[in-house]
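Escalation from tier 1.

The customer reports that the assembly of two entities below gives different structure tokens on two consecutive runs. Tier 1 could not reproduce it. I'm attaching the input and our single run for tier 2 to review.
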Amino acid sequence: MKGFRLSRRSALRGAGVALGLPWLEAMSGSTRKARAAAPKRLLVFFTPDGVIAESWMPTGGETDFQLNTCHKPLEPHRKDIVILDGVDNLITQRHPRGCQHTRGMGSCMTGRELMEGTMMGGSGTPAGLANGISIDQELVNRLKPPTKFPSLELGVGAGGEGGNLSVLGYLCYRGPNQPLPHENSPAAVWKRVFSDLNPGPGNEVAAARLLAERRSILDGVSASYRSLAPRLGREDRLKVEQHMTTVGDLEKRLMEPKAAATTMGCARPATPAAVDYNANDNFPMTGKLQMDLILTAFACDLTRVASLQWGRASAGPRATWLGATRGQHDMSHNINAENKAMLVKLDTWYMEQFAYLISRMKEIPEEGGTMLDNSLILYANELGRGDSHSGDRTPFLLAGRAGGRVRTGRLLKFQGDMPHNNLLVSVLNAMDVPATTFGNPSFCTGPLPGLL
Amino acid sequence: VTPGGGSLPSTPTGPATPQTPLAVCAAKDPGPAVIRRLNRFEYSQTVRDLLGETGDPAAGFPTEERRNGFDNNAIALTVSPVLAEQYLTTAEQLARSYLDRQLKTLPAQLGCAEPTSAAAEDACADKFIASMGKRAYRRPVSAEDVGILRKVYQGGRQAAVTAGKPTEAFRSGLMVALAAMLQAPRFLYRVEESAAGTGIVPADSWELASRLSYLIGGTAPDAELSLAAEQGRLATGEQIAAQVQRLMGTPSARAMVGRFHKEWLEVESLEAIEKDAKVYPTFTNSVLASMNKELDAFLDTVFWDRAGGDIGSLFSAPYTFVDATLSKYYGMTAPAGSGMQKVILDGKTRGGILTQGGLLAAQSPANQTSPVRRGKFVREQLICQNLPPPPPGAVVVLPALDPKLSTRERFARHSTDPACSGCHSMMDPIGLGFENYDGAGRYRDSEAGRPIDASGEVKGATIGVFTGLLGLDGLGAKIAASREVRSCVVRQWFRYAFGRDEGLVDSCALDALAKRFTESNGNFRDLLVALTETDAFRAKRAGGGAP
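Tier 1 run:
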């Protein structure tokens, strides 16, 4: 807990300030030391249903490009981004199983096709979940970050209404058929990630008691799994042992809290209010809270890998705050002049949120510059375009330099087939994971040329 | 028999070499009994019955994966790190709240002396572990588990003492013991230990009690069922049948049946439906809410009504349930009385489940009907025939709306283009028979200024060509009489009841159930009873699950 002064920190808590306070640095006892180990982070930023390419893709050359309408909010950050034009999700395009939405979603971060199964997509062909691990989890496996949370999966209005999330709702996978559900409520994220970050003055004894109680509970739970497992048949035993491992991980995490401020900007954020975060009209507010929570989790080095899923494939908000009367997916199926204008407006709004993340990261100084210099934000979508459901020219966008690995301020255009798996390989490389292929190798030809 | 679930890893499969159904029947193999984690519905119901908790504590847990359309398939019920954490925090909350309510009276309930010393408290805690443990684990707690829970209890005491609160030691110990029980595999899963030896053995009485209570009510055995298990009174067919009849009279049974219907008929997330207000301006949220209530009331009645709990009622009942909002929307006379009221239909526009607004709207996109989706629904949910995925490169875009063309005309390419017609002939001709109902469930007899041709055909099934009013004398009546549909209903119930995909090994049981379902004129309650009489329900494989 070096460089992490609990009592002063708690003074900030009540005021609800989390980020960018210049004097926080001065309060930290060993800023220099903490800074020396600025970690690299990956944040995946997903929005659904494709985009309108003619309002999204920039014109011009590699460095003298003109940003298009949707990217106007990124103008102040044009030196910090790489826009990709011509990357194709070939699995969406060519794999027979599932529909384009389900394939696009399943393959988005896994580069894998869907498994056989019975789940239905919007246009209705049976398929299962994605057949492989996603890059964020590949990073977790390969880099083994020493953080309290290996990764955080957050959503904004991305829940499956009526209880059915299915393949359309999952961006991240621990492995084939192992989707990672995301948390859509900032209040729940806060509780999970930050509630025990700092017990606050006078609460240390109560916090220690809670920890001791939990140790006793989880010891008992682990023991009950251990005692039962040998009494079960083989299949059942595997299942129970898998659960037991999860309990063990939980126990380890709770017992060895490693939260340590590495940068300024780490302060327990204010508790989000108890409102219905899944309500359509709360979408913008929820998004803002989730972004702040991710930024703070990064600043406190509680995690180095996160994803933020806005809506889900074949769904998306009814952007009432922009004047929309129809849902995003609904409009994306029928790109007439009116819907097109609204979709461009909505995608521009998404880019404002993306720009917000960039701005905040730039405000947090770290070894080598700012948090943005040490991070990579990857924008992704499950489709290229909503009405044709094409995976051709799927929009991808990067921000941040990943510790100097990514050369930013560029527009990269690709002709012919350029599988998005190649981008996934390059993202792994940017995060210092050596790889020459990722996902289904028949949809991968190596790293994305010219990115790093 | 086609295994319905594709080929996910660890899918239980039947014998490697196909056997003839005759050999399958002779083996009396109950099939694999996969360990089943409680889904959110079962967790909340179980906690309610165990602790008297009134809320829905599992509401915030991750949604279950659907498999074969149901959210209780054991293979899909895995545990993510987030869920494990929620189990922990929810168990703590539940335990604290239980003790807030019960701690004072607990010694009296357990029959222990007022705990005035640590020794007396420990003795009382032992009683708590035995009695609460038996209910939470749904069988007597083993000596080993007692040891584990005692240790947890002592850890909780110590935590309070260390925190300088020795007076809270008893409470703290009980809290952690209860929280541990609520995360133990014997609570979160329906555990059936591997029986020694090989071959087929009867499920033991505690296992049977849980099988009964979760099948019929989605919750743990109640006091009476537990007592029967304890006293060995679940040994004969009559004893089991008596419990089945009793459980079928409980509110939990109705809730469980309601869930089955909504998942099977794909109307479980009706409240999430959105329609284009320009195309369907009268389709409001209150209409949608009333449609949901209509489905609930109708499905509840066709299952439980003594006079008509059969498949014929489901698909062509001449009645439905409407309130003022829905009757106005449907263009009917408002019923007398407030809320949902049973009304006899005039036989001109509606009848049976297929003509209910909620189901029709659920199978339609936002601004039009989809013969594809409606046809696929009938093909897959009602006939249990899974369709192949579209070929690579197929463009899945709804044909553009055109005020001059009927839906049948707009979808014509699906039948004329050979690249489409192979598969679409299995869906579209069925769905086009639904064209008298628009994408928001309203009846219509013309489109694009011309009368609607709502004739349809279910190819490759005994239903064949159908015309006339969809529910009463058209598709609904033919579906109710169809052999394929009856066996599909049986298969859907089997999947739901056993939380697994059916396999070759189950073909004998499925055949027998289908035969009995037909003989009972498609009586649903009798089908539920029949499920409890199968080998799959009463027996299990010994020796770790291999047949």
